[in-house]
């Protein structure tokens, strides 16, 4: 609102100057001083409101960045070594350092994504009331003609950002592996191949970043060239319609037409560009946070509600029983059991209530243990794997 009131105060001040120059003393001096103070006050208010926009956006982005970093750290602590192997350390470092910065950049400009079009509509209305609807709509059309080009540039920036993030992950991962295996690399004299690999990845990353910088420079160039083009189109159509320009109308229209240059042509485009990069970063962070987690350890299960802990234990026991049954079935199919005296003795002992028959029962159990010891190695390994998977801490 302050940005729109300053051109009004400027037009009234110029009209007062024209009237006073044509007939000195016809207009009171205090009126001119009032309009001059109004022009200066509009600039001061615009500065305060402008910085408040950035303060709200930057504060929101800072809070979201801290929350996302905390969520990433908590996720890493809940994962075990087998789960972290699917996401290398370079990806995690890149998420917690580079991707979260998109919240600071995106939310600093998201307000202008709706403030820019709203201000452009108000400018169109005010210029129409001063110069007419046709010159105003022609000038705004010349300004809006660059929006399809800017939309294409935003899509290009999104693709470049995705490729840059992938190359950054690959470079950080390879650099970490080189640092961890530096002793083996020196022993095998692999310094040059790894140097060439890292340099090649870095060159691709720099190439994508350079193209993004070129697109940002093009957007900046559009910002500086839009105001002269829009003013030329507007005033040309106005004169072609047979109207005559005067000094207050010219400065009033120029002051209005240069307002969308900042909020619509520059800040709104940067806002859409940064929000697109933020959307890509959110997709990458969501993919990492959606990784499956192992069950919590025993000491953490005690802190859970009784119902939730009982449900988890029942589900884990049922899954372990199912795995043991599958392994037993596969082992029985692989090697059919032969009837023996030991098996007959065990069955008789079970039929007598499990109390056994003294020394004969002891001999029978020992024979059964010896028979279990001679099972195939594959079945024993499978049974051991099932027992390991059923560990109460839930770690493989």
Model description:
With 396 residues, the protein is mostly helical. The chain has helices at 2-22, 29-78, 81-84, 89-99, 101-109, 112-131, 133-144, 147-180, 182-188, 191-240, 247-257, 259-289, 298-301, 306-334, 341-351, 359-373, 377-389. Helix 1 (2-22) runs antiparallel to helix 11 (247-257). The two termini are 63 Å apart.
SSE layout:
Elements: H1 2-22, H2 29-78, H3 81-84, H4 89-99, H5 101-109, H6 112-131, H7 133-144, H8 147-180, H9 182-188, H10 191-240, H11 247-257, H12 259-289, H13 298-301, H14 306-334, H15 341-351, H16 359-373, H17 377-389
Ends: how far apart? 63 Å
Strand residue content: under 5%
Structure annotation, total helices: 17
Helix content: over 70%
Order of helices and strands: HHHHHHHHHHHHHHHHH
- The beta-strand count equals 0
Q: Name the assembly state.
A: single chain
Q: Note the overall shape.
A: elongated
What number is the mean pLDDT?
74
Taking pLDDT < 50 over at least 5 consecutive residues as the criterion, the unreliable ranges are 330-396
SS content category: mainly alpha
- Main β sheet profile: none
Concise account of the structure shown:
The protein has 396 residues and is an all-alpha fold. The chain has helices spanning 2-22, 29-78, 81-84, 89-99, 101-109, 112-131, 133-144, 147-180, 182-188, 191-240, 247-257, 259-289, 298-301, 306-334, 341-351, 359-373, 377-389.
């Amino acid at each position: 609102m302050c940005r729109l009131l300053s051109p009004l105060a400027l037009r009234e001040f110029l009209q007062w100057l024209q009237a006073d120059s044509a007939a000195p003393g016809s207009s009171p001096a205090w009126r001119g001083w009032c309009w001059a103070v109004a022009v200066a006050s509009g600039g001061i208010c615009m500065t305060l409101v402008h910085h408040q926009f950035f303060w709200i956006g930057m504060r929101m982005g800072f809070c979201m960045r801290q929350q996302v970093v905390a969520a990433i750290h908590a996720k890493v602590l809940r994962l075990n070594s087998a789960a972290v192997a699917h996401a290398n350390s370079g990806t995690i470092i890149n998420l917690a350092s580079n991707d979260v910065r998109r919240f600071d950049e995106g939310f600093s400009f998201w307000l202008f994504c709706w403030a820019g079009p709203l201000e452009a509509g108000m400018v169109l209305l005010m210029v129409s009331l001063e110069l007419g609807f046709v010159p105003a709509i022609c000038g705004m059309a010349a300004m809006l003609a660059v929006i399809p080009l800017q939309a294409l540039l935003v899509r290009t920036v999104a693709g470049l950002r995705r490729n840059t993030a992938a190359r950054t992950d690959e470079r950080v991962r390879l650099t970490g592996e080189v640092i961890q295996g530096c002793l083996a690399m020196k022993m095998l004299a692999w310094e040059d191949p790894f140097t060439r690999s890292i340099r090649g990845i870095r060159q691709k990353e720099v190439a994508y970043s350079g193209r993004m910088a070129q697109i940002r420079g093009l957007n900046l160039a559009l910002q500086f060239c839009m105001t002269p083009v829009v003013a030329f189109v507007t005033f040309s159509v106005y004169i072609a319609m047979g109207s005559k320009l005067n000094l207050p109308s010219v400065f009033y229209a120029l002051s209005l037409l240069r307002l969308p240059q900042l909020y619509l042509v520059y800040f709104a485009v940067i806002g859409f560009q940064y929000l697109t990069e933020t959307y890509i970063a959110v997709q990458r962070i969501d993919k990492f946070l959606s990784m499956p987690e192992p069950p919590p350890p025993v000491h953490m299960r005690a802190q859970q509600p009784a119902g939730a802990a009982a449900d988890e234990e029942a589900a884990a026991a049922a899954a372990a029983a199912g795995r043991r049954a599958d392994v037993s079935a596969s082992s029985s199919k692989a090697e059919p059991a032969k009837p023996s005296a030991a098996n007959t003795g065990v069955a008789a002992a079970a039929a007598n209530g499990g109390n056994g028959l003294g020394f004969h029962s002891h001999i029978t159990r020992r024979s059964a243990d010896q028979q279990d010891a001679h099972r195939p190695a594959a079945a024993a390994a499978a049974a051991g794997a099932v027992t390991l998977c059923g560990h109460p801490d839930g770690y493989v």
